[in-house]
Amino acid sequence: MCPGRFPYHCPNAQAGMPPGTPAFSVGRNFSPLTAPLVEFRDVHFAYSDRPILDGVSFSVARGGVTALMGASGGGKTTVLRLIGGQERAQRGEVLFDGQDVGRLGPAELFAARRRMGMLFQFGALFTDMSVFENVAFPLREHTALPEALVRDVVLMKLEAVGLRNARDLMPSEVSGGMARRVALARAIALDPELVMYDEPFAGLDPISLGTAARLIRQLNDALGLTSIVVSHDLDETFRIADQVVVLANGKVAAQGTPQQVRESADPLVHQFVNALADGPVRFHYPGAGVEEDFGQGGRS
After folding, report:
1. The predicted structure's pLDDT at residue 280
2. Vertex 225, ends 223 and 231: CA angle to 5°?
């Protein structure tokens, strides 16, 4: 008898996977020696005159979980938008399976996006659709599968995240953690090669957060996915990641295994991973000193 309410508590029944699926373990399919699925080569990007990425280079190995971290506003979500082709680099190359996303035409980009899954911040479920209909949406939009097969695929994906019996509920009737798992089922509905997660742990209680983190790792390994996780939650993210890329000031401040990043000598990385108030990222917005600003007779 397996303890716990969710499938991942059972070593051979985790996340609804078939008997014999190995228990949770980091890096089961990860091999840094294989050609990367995603690669950034000297990428520059700015919104108007505000630079975001300034010569960023890193790669995402197939079969692994890569964590993309850094302070707010550091360009992490922009990286996801560049991979998906919503934005295009002003300089450099963003490669997906060897193809420069910025040079793809509409048809080629559409085909590349079908090989990607996306879990948006807070799930972004369609509020007027049931759990079932949310997961079925990409299948109906991008395939010509008969409705009977759509039903079976949807139920398989919901089973994988422990929510098959919640299929008739509306998004307003599920908790935040459950909504995130529904969004995960929708993200893997088309069996993508790459799944991108934008702050998948934001706003979750510790139980839901742990559930989401383990599902990301387990589904990555069981389905042979490649995952990119944007997150500020250090402990859970470091626990499931094969490699970590830290962005700061438009550049890659550190990259390597979670342990290598924890041991980084870079002052900004040290401040980030140790949650320190003092460091390169200052508490006070820069400007006039206290001595200059007070006692000026009400002048602003």
Report:
1. 73
2. 120
3-class DSSP assignment, residue 179: helix
Distance CA 178, CA 158 (A): 11
pLDDT digits (tens, 9 = 90+) for 22-59: 334 444 455 555 778 999 999 999 888 888 899 999 99
Give CA 11 to chain center in angstroms: 25
pLDDT at 23: 36
**Entry field: residues in the chain:** 300
Q: Are 239 and 209 in contact (CB under 8 A)?
A: no
Count of Cβ atoms closer than 10 Å to residue 42 Cβ: 13
Amino acid identity for residue 170 in this structure: M
Contact between 29 and 184 under an 8 Å Cβ cutoff? The reply is no
pLDDT, tens digit, for every residue of 89-101?
A: 999 999 999 999 9
Arithmetic mean of pLDDT over the chain: 81
Predicted TM-score (pTM) of the model is 0.78
User: Please, what is the Cα angle at 109 between 155 and 230, to 5 degrees?
Assistant: 65
Closest by Cα among 102, 90, 17, 29 to 63: 29
223 Cβ contact partners less than 8 Å away, ≥ 6 residues apart: 188, 191
Domains and CATH numbers, the chain: 38-115+192-293 (3.40.50.300)
Cα–Cα distance for residue pair 221/268, rounded to 1 Å: 32
Sheet holding 91-96, edge to edge: 50-60, 38-47, 91-96, 99-100
Q: Tell me the HSE value of 141 on the side-chain side, using a 13 A CA sphere.
A: 12
Alpha helices by DSSP H, listed for the chain, are 76-83, 106-113, 131-142, 147-160, 176-187, 206-222, 234-240, 258-262, 267-273, 290-293
